[in-house]
Every structure is written in structure tokens, then in C-alpha cells.
Request: fold
Amino acid sequence: VGRDTEFAEYFASRAAVMRNTAYLLCHDWHLAEDLTQTAFTKLYLGWSRISRRDTLDNYTRTVLVRAFLDERRRPWRRERAIDPDGEVFDVAAHDPEVAERLALQAALARVPPRQRAALVLRFFADLSVEETAQILGCSSGTVKSQTARGLDKLRMHLPTTTSGGCAL
Amino acid sequence: MSDVRDIFDRILDTPAPPLVSAAEAIASGRRARHRRIRTVALAGTAALTALAVGIPGIVARQGAPARLVATPDPAQAIDRMSTVLMGALPHSGVMTFGQRAGEADNDSVAVSTNIYIGGKGGQLVAFSGVTPQGTPPNDLCTIPPDSRLLPPTEITCKTIVLNGFRVRLGTSTKEVPARGGGTAMVTIRHATRYADGRVYIVEEVPMVNDYMEINPPVPMLTNPALSDAQLERLVTSPGFLPR
Reply:
């Protein structure tokens, strides 16, 4: 019972943040939900083995990011970047804010998955290079280069009207 | 790089579907734990050692006084139960996975193995868990099957006495997804024993774990690997008891 109470408290406080992380990675709320569920299920299974509670966030993020990267290897899950000239933007044409958000989302979707994961972990989760490297299972140097390339890609695809695009 | 964060925040500024509740997440975790119990296949070197023990060894030890402790050491319990379970299988005609298997927490221990006889497959599972019930009634069939392992749809049940131990011997049905679509009904045979606040269960399932994912398909067992008498002897094995 104590285990479930602790887990429920942690879930209540962190599930939304983890799902947002997942959404930035996969830009699909349903898949984000699946990834979050996967991460928390594995966390539940390993709960009694995780002695340091200050590592819970990174444990959960590790499972989530790796589940995302694994998911993308499945042939039926191969994602396609949103076509900025496609109908999705026609739908949003009447609302400039929605159109801009979709354009940002499309730009992020065009960043390759590992580079996107590096960006999300570094700049959304505020993790250090070393922590990001641990989660991605690579060296700090690789994280730095993936981050730099990711930023280049993101900048390349950002709409020119986006203020964030100029400052990157 | 606050601009990148700003981009992320703007992307997230969109209506999201409601999150699942903590209770649902816990339920999902419990289901996963249960699946893992059933999924993990048994044995490795422990199994090879165990094959030398055999059912006669189990029978011979039945008279030994049992030292009962509420919560066994999980790792040791897995090893011990694996050894007893694998030792109970017939020496010829039955193949098992050669992988180590088992799952334990503070309240329960479970081990399982896929078994193959003549190209057909099934699964043998042993479970031990704390039970909140006090002294069990004389007729064990008045207690419902333990839901941590067994399906509720019991079709037969009888209480027998073996070497002074009461054993609940039952069969249950369970609906499972069928290859090629639809569902199939399988019959699970199980033996249950209660001792000092714990319940001990051995069950034989006529299909292998993850049989939906295994290609080529493994047909379900049509003849049991263990007889009822073997299941009864197995569940009363002192090797299952905590030390």
C-alpha cells in the first residue's frame, strides 16, 4: 500500500510534465500518452529497486525517450514530418496563432529523432549535457554535436515570421 | 537558449486530452507485473541442476518439518521454487526454455516455464503469496481461487488430503485471443495449498507464453505434462516453503 501511495503521489506530480516531454518528441498526443504510460508502468515495476528518489525523474525520462526511439524503429510507426504546404495549414489559416504553432511543431518534427530528443532534454527538461548523455546512452561529445545539429535543423525549418526563429 | 524553450512552450500551448489517473497507472503497472510473472521463462543452470532432482526427491522430502516464515528472501525463493518446479517435470519427452525466470516482491514469488511436448506447448507456473485469510476451512473449495494467479471461472474443485496436507485441486477456464482472430477457451489445471499465512499454487496452462507472437505458431498442449497426482505432490513440496 505504501508503494502504491508513493507511486500515486509521484505520478500525480510528474505525469503531465512527462507527457509534455513525450509530446515534444512525437508531436502526437495519443502516442505521447502511450509513451508516458509505458514509462510509468516500467517505473512501477522497478519502484522497489529505485532506492534514490531524486533519480526518479531521470529514470522515467530515460524509459520514455528510449521507448520513443524504439517506437520509431517500428515500420508502421515511421513518422512523416508535417508538410508546411499541406492541408493541415489550410485548416489553421483562419487562426494565425494556431498556424504558427503548427509551423513550429512541423519545424521540430523535421529535426531527426535523436537530435530532437537532445534538444528536448537539454532545453525543455533543463538537463545538463552529462545527464542528457546518460539518458540517450551516448557520450557528452555526441550530445553536444546532436544538439548543435538539431538547433541548425530547427532554425532551418522555422517559419521566417517566428520570432524564435531569428534568435536561435 | 530560452528561445528554444519558448518554442517548446508555444508548441505545448494546445489542448491536451485528459491524463489517465494514478489509479489507472497503478492498475496498468499491476497488470504488467502479472504479465511478467507469466512471461518469464525458467531455469538456466538452476534448471539443469533441478532436472537431477525429479519428483521422487520431492516426495521423499514431504515428511520433513517445514520452517515457515511470512516473507521469504525473494531471490532465494525464486531459485528454490525454480528448482522444485523444474525437478518435477518428466525427464524425457518434455523440453523447456533454457532461460532464467522468476518474479518476486515482498508479498509473492512466482516462477514459470514454457514446456514443449511433441511440438505442442504449454506453461507451468508456481506461485507463493501472503494470504490475508486465517485458518482455511476444511473444505478448501469454499474459498474462491486466488485471483493473483488464477481466473475466477472455476469449473471443478475438490479438496484432497495428501500426506496430511489438504490440497485444493481445480480446473478453470479462461478466454484467450486466438491465432487468426476471435477467441479460444483454455482449461487451466491448478493445485493450491495453504500453510501459515501463505498460499502455494501450481498451475499448468495448455499454451505457451506470448503464443500470439511466436512464429511459427506453437499448438496448445492436448495432453498434460503433469498428472493431477503430480500437481498435488508438487504443491505440497517442502521446497516451496520459505526458509
Observations:
- Residues 115 and 150 of chain A are 5 Å apart (CA to CA).
- Confidence is low (pLDDT under 50) at residues 75-92, 163-167 of chain A.
